[in-house]
Sequence to fold (495 residues):
Amino acid sequence: MENIQFKYDKNFLVAVFQDSTEIINYQLEMLTNNEIQNVIHANKQIKNGTVHIYYDITSKLSFEQAITHKKITLDQFLNFLFSFIKACKELEEYQLEQDGILLDVKYIYVNPVNFEADFVYLPNTKGGDSFEKQMVMLKNILMSGSVELLDGQRVQQLVDIFMQNFEQIQTFENKLAEVLKTSTKPQYKAPPSAPPENVSHYLPEQPAPREQPTPKEQAVPKMSITPPVAKKPIPDMPVASVDRIATKGKPAVNMRGMVIVAGVTVVGIGLIFALMRMGIFATETGGTDMTSVGLLAILVLVADYFAYKKLGQTGSAKAEAAATKEKPTKKSAPTVKKGIDNIVYPKVELSKVSENPQPIEIKAETPMAYKPQPLAASNAPSIYDYKTDIIQDDDLFSPYLEHDLNNTREKISLNERFRIGKLVGQVDYISQSKKVSKIHAEFLTKDGRVFVIDLNSLNGTFLNGNRERIQSNIEHEVFNNDRILVADDEFIVRF
Fold:
């Protein structure tokens, strides 16, 4: 490690080997030509005779940066450990030694959502840390104060595991699986039969239990018989005419007219055939004059059409007249007219108007007041639970950020560490831009000076309209009126 220097170049972590003879070429080729799970992909470049290995850390957050904002849970730490196990197993598939994994919180990169980790692998001939030393380093991370140690049982189990000597990574994984199965939820205990005296006044009075009868004394349950309800008489329905059948949604059909039309059609066709047999439509060549036959058939169809129309209109008129005569008429209920301003005007009968009428009191309907319903309580975190509080001008202290949101100028105070991104619970200001990363950038305030750091964001952070993004993981000092472009979301620094 003494001959290896680390630096950042945009979104890459660069490991510079001063002595190229310390690099194992086979390991380097495996690292650059394969995508190894939970191991950061690397590329090789030679500059000025020295080997530079570039590790792509775009959209990744270092373990050190993740724990500076808030402590991680024990489950997140277990996810981190299982990521380490996956990386070791994958390295074995490519015949790479696991001691090449760099277990330094500065160069371990995690997903801030579930804390799965990706590791830097160094193809170094001198080798890295042994498995026993790696266990000690993992235990130190656990006990460094960056992990919430609320579950004492599982914490003690983890400490005991780290104190053991494992020859195989599979044994270590099996031990961790036992810790993962340990339930962190409190076991349910049945309430005592009689509450303590000192808490009895918190409980409502319980009714005395009813005595259960013996099998001999059990009474036969009484059957409740509901008297039959007299059915309402069905009113006489008007009977439709035999020759006219109506269905719902369809027009009525005149059956008698249809029969007459069909009969006329049959007679006309029979007449045509009879005339043909008599030779009336015969030609000089012995054939049949089809033109005359067609004209006669058309005349029969036209006669049928007019007969049907005549009979249909007559039948429809008779049916409507019968239905109107049979249908009882109902008196419509008196309607109350409403004027403007919701004023109800009562109906006054003329027969009750006297010579000295009394003034009529007209009451207006009182409009119903809207009562907002309370929102249902929910334990699920909402994005608005972490919305940044906008400070007022009289409470404003320097430094702060100005930001335009929906044509409204926000003034956002900066604390010692202030993060901008989209990951709820991990940032101090949630940007509405879709191009901003989950944890995009961080502002540091030290001794009245302000610095901005790009946290390996995908779309970068820019200063004062400069088209070249700032270097990631490096502090860049900003001054009054400087414009910070977080992807495409602009903030102005004010002192």
In short: The mean pLDDT is 76. The first helix runs from residue 25 to 33.
